[in-house]
Amino acid sequence: MALEESHVRRAAHLARLAVSDDQATGFVDDLSRILDMVDQLQAIDTEGVSPLAHPLDATQRLRADEVTETNQRDIFQRCAPAVENGLYLVPRVVE
Amino acid sequence: MHDKTLTQLAASLKSGEFSSRELTAHFLQKIEKADSKLNSFITVTGEQALKQAEAADNARAAGETGILTGIPLALKDIFCTRDVKTSCGSRMLDNFIAPYDATVVEKLNAAGTISLGKTNMDEFAMGSSNENSHYGPVKNPWDLTAVPGGSSGGSAAAVAAGLVPAAMGTDTGGSIRQPAAFCGITGLKPTYGRVSRYGMIAYASSLDQAGPMARSAEDCAHLMNVIAGHDVRDSTSVARGVPDYTDTLNAPLSGLKIGLPKEYFGDGLDPDVESAVREAVKVYESLGATVREVSLPHTHYAIPAYYVIAPAEASSNLSRFDGVRFGHRCKDPVDLIDLYKRSRAEGFGEEVKRRILIGTHTLSEGFFDAYYTKAQKVRRLIRQDFLDAFEDVDVLMGPASPTPAFDLGAKKDPVSMYLQDIYTIAVNLAGIPGISVPAGLAGGRPVGLQILGTHFAEAQLLNVAHQYQQATDWHLQLPAFAEEYA
Amino acid sequence: MQWETVIGLEVHVQLATRSKIFSGASTGFGAEANTQACAVDLGLPGTLPVLNEQAVAMAVQFGLAVHSEIAEVSVFDRKNYFYADLPKGYQTSQMYHPIVGPGEVEITLEDGTNKRIRIHHAHLEEDAGKSLHEDFMGMTGIDLNRAGTPLLEIVSEPDMRSAKEAAAYLKAIHSIVTYLGISDGNMAEGSMRCDVNVSVRPKGQEAFGTRAEIKNVNSFRFVERAIAFEVERQIELIEDGGSVVQETRLFDPERDETRSMRTKEEANDYRYFPCPDLLPVVLDEAYLDHLRGQLPELPADKRARFQNELGLSAYDASVLSASREMAEFFEEVHHVCGDAKQAANWVQGELAGALNRENLSITNSPISARQLGELVSRVVDDTINGKAAKQVFQALWNGQGDNADAIIESKGLKQVTDTGAIEAMIDQVIAESPAQVAQYRDAEPDKRGKMIGYFVGQVMKASRGTANPQQVNGVLKAKLDALL
């Protein structure tokens, strides 16, 4: 499956990565080679094989519905780039 | 002190030969003297370490000690540490101080160990050479022009150089075993789910696993006794009893059935690496093991499958680094999209971006089934290869890496770098444990013998590795660098 | 041309767990910003989710209540997109293997007939935080207290054909989740939110028209108004030669219109894949049986029982079973007084009227169900008459007494049924009303019935309202007729 520059640009947008024109060209090269390598997978017959998402066949353990956390806002917000009145600030979002 | 194993140091602390404070000060001095040449640490926490050491000495005086009380260690900078920067090798987290300790760190602290600092790594654990760190590459103490391997390169180099007796690493596709091999130390990747991932910054959640890196299998067994076990904060951690890994170290190996996967001895394997590994296998035969060839037919599909699954998970795991709640934020964003795009473009390095883009692309509409679903099916086949092999043999052996450590800057093309992990990556896809032990030198650079076992066979792997280390002394050899800065 | 409307609803219900779906932070509403957002909710590096058992149980209870198949294995997926109030850059949801499979809900239409609306599936997911657009130095503020609150998203089939049906369906869902106690159903606080898919097609055509999705439709009234507007817009558009675009629209309750959300995001691609931090949720038959055994009586069953066993009218049964609070109140009144019809009359009459006047909900009623039940039982056992009962009700409402008996006692409202006492009062009234007695005597026999009212009034007055009116009537008639 050939990779176009438009694919890279679309992925960069979805992943919210600023990519310059030069960088985009470089990524098209790199990613094309990586995907060529990945395309070897198509050679394997996987008819009837179910996908494996976790290496162990374990099942989800459930947590009791208890409040175990206390307010640590001040500590958590020490590493925040911008806060005001306990809120995280971002550029104005227009709905 | 630098040439002693963690086990020996623990005995000396117990006998009162020296205090933890003396031991800690000794290693801090070594780091101070030597690490400018290696760049194996991102953060050194000397003051805190000395305080911890004093507390350990006091605990010892009060008789409240475990085996590892007062032993200095280092942590890969992927483990969150309360009040100490956790960068994950990235500019994105250059200012990040976690408000909590990772479970592994909590357990090590509770066992009385001392943290000397946080070791260098490939950014977000993505890399096989430690050249992808925001903090610069790490040098291999066996040859400063060589890479230490990655992504736990800082941990491996620091242990090999005698800057610290042991360190914690993480392994997503070989990131403990390959640097352990390149630096001539012992590194264990446990079974997926054996060690908690809580507080360990995720690269690829279904593959990541923490493990010990030290001078010997016995050292690793002591560390496993501390870090292994169920954690209610990690849904993927396994609720299963943890044995005392030191109990079975001396079990005899007569009758041990060793399988040599023929795919691990094919094209691209350095002949010196191959002969070192075959020599090691002979040692096992002399210890009473039997050897046979086995096949893991899907081996060559492990790298392609991994480079779909790992980047897909990474692309999602790394979305939280958005410049809003923590981490790097660009200057003067004009709007939210600009904030995201520039913060992330500035915060992440090239390899991380490459993997985010690959993962985003392969998960996107129209490509998902052909890449992601296909890779997951192949993943099942790869796991089945191992399960089938373990029907016939107890352990598998082969090289940890096709070559010894390569030169810094030697692998510019990402794909040729990826192919380095040909012998380690399938193990993560299958979730089984693997250990790399030093088994000789090739061109003056260490060779690692990789031993693989079935799920939860850590005790067996440590036993098998320990018996080899009782019969040989490759693991005790130190690079000249370590002596130079002794 | 005759048009037919086709509607499907996606209802997001916040589950009433104490802690969040994947963390131990509180779900309480109204706390100070970000004080209930823990490290997991904030998506801090290295943190991991662990699933809340109560969220699972509540989803299953809903599934059982709507006769769904519960998935033996359900899986959490990540829905990847960036938004300021989405901390991890993905929402943990269930795309491919939801916990609740196809089911159905019965709704009652205005003409009293019932209709089945099919549920496509319902899945568990985590709520996002909130963006606050008040001016913070020209910035938007993010509060993540709500992030991680468990949501059950209930997706219907496009089975509704009018705005009224859609509103009835939403009410039915509301009543099921509140009956089950899995949500407080408070739409004003966002505990229940609704997206509406609307399309129109020429009557008789089988293929669906192009649909628009209307977001932010967060009250029963808005559902009707948003659909009404949207249907009209789509029909007008098509009749003018245009065509409906598949898009997301926002309902603006102030202007009573829907408008396109073009600004929000170009084509999304959520890149769903199984969440590697969570394992498959496996539920066995024993677990389902256990929850099945704990299910309360549901609205539809309650309605049927009210009608069939208590003999209420279809209308009364439907009103009294609409909400769990109303039904529980009524049942307590009935339990105390023992007369279903009287209980229904009082709850829907005097009580509903008073609550309405003061804009109170049944849960805030100043009169408790026990108090009302005691009052009604005094009516049922003839201790007081209807008029006195209203006085007692008013006194209870105003807090002038704890229970009906005390008020009856203190106000002397006990009905006089002692024949001797009544006869004495009647004799006195007759003695004091010679003119009226004469009129009565001279009147045509068929007019006399009406004229007796005067004497009854006088006797009741003399008894200060406590005489039993039927008894007074009977005795008076006999005494007056004896004078003829």
Q: According to CATH, what is the class of the domain at 5-43 in chain A? A: Mainly Alpha
CATH topology of the domain at 5-43 in chain A: Histone, subunit A
Radius of gyration of chain A: 22 Å
Strand tally of chain A: 3
Average pLDDT level of chain A:
95
Spatial arrangement of strands, main beta sheet of chain A = 2-3
* Count of strand segments of chain B: 11
List keywords for this structure.
heterotrimer; B: 486 residues; alpha/beta; Amidase signature (AS) enzymes; 11-stranded mixed sheet; globular; C: Arc Repressor Mutant, subunit A; 3-stranded antiparallel sheet; 15 helices; 16 strands; elongated
In short, what is this structure?
Chain C: It comes from Vreelandella aquamarina. The complex is a heterotrimer of chains A (95), B (486) and C (484). Chain A is α+β, with helices and mostly antiparallel strands and 95 residues long.
Give an overview of the whole structure:
The complex is a heterotrimer of chains A (95), B (486) and C (484). With 95 residues, chain A is an alpha+beta fold. Helices cover 35% and strands 9% of the residues of chain A. Chain A is built from three helices and three strands. Chain A has helices at 5-14, 21-38, 73-77, and strands at 62-63, 83-84, 87-91. In chain A, strands 2-3 form a two-stranded antiparallel ribbon. In chain A, a hairpin with a 2-residue loop joins strand 2 (83-84) and strand 3 (87-91). Chain B has 486 residues and is an alpha/beta fold. Chain B has a domain at 6-253 and 471-484: Amidase signature (AS) domain (Amidase signature (AS) enzymes, Alpha-Beta Complex). Chain B is built from 16 helices and eleven strands. Chain B has an eleven-stranded mixed sheet, sandwiched between helices. In chain B, strand 7, helix 8 and strand 8 form a beta-alpha-beta unit. The longest helix of chain B is centred in the last third of the chain and has 25 residues, at 368-392. The mean pLDDT of chain B is 97. Chain C folds into three domains: 3-287, no CATH class; 297-411, no CATH class; 419-482, Arc Repressor Mutant, subunit A. Chain C is elongated and about 95 Å long. With 484 residues, chain C is an alpha+beta fold. Chain C contains 15 helices and 16 strands. Chain C has helices at 53-65, 163-180, 220-239, 285-294, 299-308, 314-321, 324-337, 340-357, 369-380, 386-397, 404-411, 419-432, 434-442, 445-462, 469-482; strands at 3-14, 51-52, 73-74, 77-80, 90-93, 103-108, 114-126, 130-136, 139-143, 150-156, 192-202, 212-215, 247-252, 257-260, 273-274, 281-282. Classes of the chains: A alpha+beta (95), B alpha/beta (486), C alpha+beta (484). The interface between A and B is large, with 52 and 77 residues. Chain C: This is Asp-tRNA(Asn)/Glu-tRNA(Gln) amidotransferase subunit GatB. Chain C: It comes from Vreelandella aquamarina. Chain A: This is Asp-tRNA(Asn)/Glu-tRNA(Gln) amidotransferase subunit GatC. Chain A: It comes from Vreelandella aquamarina. Chain B: Keywords: Ligase. Chain B: It comes from Vreelandella aquamarina.
